[in-house]
Amino acid sequence: MRAYSSHKDIIKLVYKVDSVGLVPTMGSLHEGHLSLIRKALSENEKVIVSIYVNPLQFNNVNDLKKYPRDIKNDLQRLEAISDIIVYVPDDNDIYEKDKKKKKYNFGHFTKIMEGKVRPGHFDGVATVVEKLLRMFNPSNAYFGEKDFQQLILIKALVKKQELKANIVGCGTIREDDGLAMSSRNKLLNNLERKSAANVIRLLKKAKKLYKSSTKEETKSNILKDALMIENFNLEYFEILDISELSGFLEEEKEIRAFIACKVGKIRLIDNIKI
Fold first, then answer.
1. What is the pLDDT of residue 220?
2. Which residues are identified as catalytic?
3. pTM of the full structure
4. Which CATH number fits domain 183-273: 3.30.530.20, 3.40.50.720, 3.30.1370.10, 3.30.1300.10?
């Protein structure tokens, strides 16, 4: 493992390589990130792991300031993994004096769920992902399904911008109690951590209910349940057909339940196929 702060140094290492995998992260690495890296290593000759907290995708300045950062520990975790190139840039190396959020047109997609509650967020995500994909021109890029709406957005970005990369979605890695692994989990105190286990409980309950109830009946039941949970503020709960969500992509019909909430002051999201 070697770490670089300049993308130009990395380009010199990979420009003649047949297959390059890219794993974009915002650091504070956990087993979910490591699973993406291992999959990338199994499918590519070289793998680049980026660690960069992208300011353009944060709506709230305080959220950006509080986002967990531990680059020393991240690099120590990656030391045990051979044959990876770690990209640890600053703002200037990523944006090269053009630190502006691009405006993309993804239609109704940006008006639902994360797009609705975090206006401009997806433009910030798409801006940095496009930068990374154009920088390194990877064969494959790996993203977790926990951020499923983001995954669909990135597939749409690649199609709209006619980028080369194959976008690979990877299953969500979970804690023993089912909570989706997230860098934000470490910000939860003990009481909040217990409340956070309700995220997957509500999703599993919805999956069971949906087998014999309508979408609206299922959503109503989940909303009532969520109101009874201590330190738990539900932002949204949705049941959507992925083929309708993606619209502009040729995705197979698949029903998923999506949830976003705040446990204390910590925002969590998750989804499952139902």
1. 98
2. 33
3. 0.95
4. 3.30.1300.10
